[in-house]
Amino acid sequence: MLLTGIAAGAFVSTSLGGLLALKLRDQLHLILGFSAGAVIGVAFFDLLPEAVNFGLKFHSPGVILSWTALGFLSYLLADRMLMIHGVDASAPRGSVAAGVLCCHSLLDGVAIGLAFQASRAIGIAVAIAVVTHDFSDGINTTNMVLKNHGTRSGAVRWLLLDAAAPALGIAATRLFAVRGDGLGLALALFAGFFLYIGASDLIPESYHAHPKFLTTAMTLLGAAVLYLAVMFVG
Predict the structure, then answer these.
(1) Quick check: 71 and 188 in contact, CB under 8 A?
(2) Which letter, b or e, does each residue of 40-71 get, where b requires 16 or more Cβ atoms within 10 Å of its Cβ?
(3) Nearest alpha-carbon partner for 159 in 36, 9, 17, 25
(4) 117: exposed, middle or buried (Cβ count in 10 Å: 0-12, 13-18, 19+)
(5) What is the spatial distance between Cα 176 and Cα 172, in angstroms, rounded to a whole number?
(6) What mean pLDDT is reported for the chain?
(7) What's the rounded mean pLDDT across residues 46-65?
(8) Which residue from 217, 215, 194, 193 is spatially nearest to 205, judged by alpha carbons?
(9) Closest-CA residue to 49 (of 233, 177, 203)
């Protein structure tokens, strides 16, 4: 029941972000800045500490952190390969970018499902981060389509797919489980995913067009809110 509510929350958050992007264009950098801080915050303040806590029973710290690096680099590689494939297939740039964001949202859902396999507290903390930055996912998905000369109806279709993707990712984790010796590595892997999303996508997107102190302050606020949320849940 809780996972169903989280999936619904992710759908609503993504949809609201996309609908807002259709109406407002001037202050969205502040929202993206907050989301960047939230995503990076959950990686540093929750996923990595829990990965060490679970993983040290079976692996050395170096192995655990290597999986974080693997998550970061594999997400980067998947991102670049999808973009290259889209160019080779002559797909519209906006649709390729929106497809990458949908894959990202699918992985978000998988991260929530696996986090709940670790514990309810970890699952709730990850869900908070995901639902928070899903708002920016909706914004990004819509903007990617519209900036590349896509239609409004096309943007709405991609938005609905992106909004449904976390629920599909959560449902997928009902089909498999991670053993105790692999749970710490899985959490470390997803920490790498989150670090890539925050550092390589959200922070540059929020700051490059609006290099202002307030944008940076919103990123710090997002990280602080997630820190407090993790401390409260913990």
Answers:
(1) yes
(2) bbbbbbbbbebbbebbeeebeeeebbebbeeb
(3) 17
(4) middle
(5) 8
(6) 80
(7) 88
(8) 215
(9) 233
Q: What CA–CA distance (Å, rounded) separates 145 from 119?
A: 37
Q: For residue 225, which amino acid is it? A: V
What secondary structure letter does DSSP report for 58?
Answer: T
Q: What is the dihedral of CA 149, 153, 159, 164, to 10 degrees?
A: -150
- What token pair was written down for 151? 């239609």
pLDDT digits (tens, 9 = 90+) for 199-215: 887 788 777 666 778 88
Q: What is the dihedral of CA 158, 106, 11, 172, to 10 degrees?
A: 130
Task: Identify the DSSP state of 1.
Answer: -
**Residue 26, burial from CB neighbour count under 10 angstroms (0-12, 13-18, 19+):** exposed
Beta carbons of 43 and 164 less than 8 angstroms apart = no
Closest CA to 161 of 103, 229, 219: 103
